[in-house]
Design brief:
117 residues; mainly alpha
Length: 117
């Protein structure tokens, strides 16, 4: 009987994906914007979509993911605690990513990136 129940079970992966969210992505994108707007060191940095995606990818691959299924109640408090814990790490990694990507952009040096148009 247990085998039949397992065979009849269908996981609604699309529905679950809609409700899962990696909060770290939001936090990294907010920090990227804050750093790029406020740091004079990065005034000449290319902000085309390729470069920005590379910064985000570099950073997200080095910071722990924090998935949530609901932004309510005590979970929200835990997210605030998470922000405080990783804020310094994220700022450091984003800054490093900007420096690395600016020296090695995916677009060719002679190529006009979307940001330059």
């Amino acid at each position: 009987m247990a085998e039949k129940n397992q065979m009849d079970f269908n996981l609604n992966k699309d529905r679950l994906r809609e409700d899962l969210h990696n909060y770290t992505e939001d936090f990294v994108l907010e920090k990227m914007e804050e750093i790029l707007k406020n740091k004079e060191d990065f005034n000449d940095f290319c902000t085309c979509e390729n470069c920005l995606l590379d910064i985000a990818s570099y950073t997200l691959n080095r910071i722990p993911a924090k998935y949530i299924a609901s932004p309510r109640g005590s979970l929200h408090a835990k997210l605030i605690e998470f922000e405080h814990q990783v804020n310094v790490d994220i700022v450091s990694v984003v800054t490093r990513a900007i420096r690395i990507i600016s020296k090695n952009p995916r677009h060719n040096s002679g190529e006009v990136c979307e940001d330059d148009n």
